[in-house]
Structure prediction request, 358 residues.
Amino acid sequence: MTDKILLLSGDGIGPEIVGATERVIHALGHKYGYSYDLEHSLLGGCAIDADGDSLPQKTLELAKEADAILLGAVGGPRWDKVERAIRPERGLLRLRAELDLYCNLRPAVLFPALVNSSSLKSEIVSGLDLMIIRELTSGIYFGQPRGVEIREDGERYGYNTLTYTETEIERIVRSAFEIASKRSGRLCSVDKANVLEVTELWRDIVTEVSKDYPAISLEHMYVDNAAMQLVRDPKQFDVLVTSNMFGDILSDLAAMLTGSIGMLPSASLDDAAKGLFEPVHGSAPDIAGQNLANPIATILSLSMMLKYSLKEPDLAEKIEQAISTVLDAGLRTADISLADESTVGTDEMTTAIIDAMK
Ligand code: IPM
Ligand code: MG
Prediction:
């Protein structure tokens, strides 16, 4: 069967890292006979420039038809003044919502070769392998009402609304229990139930769902403490599950434990495990177009796509092996290099990974 993959390069370094990953897809074809069909479309700032909308109808249609979607990154200072409702980031949020990609998996895995690239001491992070599961289509990112207005006395005020329904909480929590069952059997649910009613509901539902998973050891933690614990002793965690905004913040934090946010992939899945796969990092406009970006987070996102959506775990394994090989051999892009190490660019790193694919 031929997999239909939609590529959305997006903005900033997006075209370089998606271009790099496209080369890896071609290599899967040459080396292992992988059969695929690629489409390209626009999302984010580039789509605003071309179509006046960050999520053009055509992109949405192609996304619905595809078996899986690979995204680079969206946004940049160039579109900061664009009307809020069509900003690049809104296009991405709408795509997540339209496709009901509520289950966001953000693994933070430290490659042994990078143990000294982390800002934390090597003994604290060596062997780190944790999975953050973030609810992605509800919470404060989507709650109504929202806006910025002017009061009668002339004072401006802004507001957003944090809402979750029972159903929305239950489905992400069940995904988390399922994933924890396939890993170490430990799950930590992160909330702010001491202050926010909606996360009190979150905590209640986690406790209810846990009755169906007696073998899982469950812990609840407030988000401020979780942030501290992630830096103090990250290996105490295996799977974390949390709401949209807490997950956004904690996943950037977890990324730094692994040395660079340039290393971390993500999967955003619907109920049928169809998904959008993207690096956790942003569009990095400051280094765009200079062959400096680390392509590994995007190439690892392809590997997650092969594993979770396209049911090609062996191909995913080949990619991960190749990345380990080049890192063990000392290849470094600027973001993961130490002061005295020489570095390679996006293209050289990609070529090395392809060459290392057995
Ligand atoms: C992420 C990003 C996005 C988010 C932005 C670009 C809208 O930070 O995927 O973590 O906040 O979800
Ligand atoms: Mg983020």
Remarks:
- The first strand starts at residue 3 and ends at 10.
- The chain has a mean pLDDT of 96.
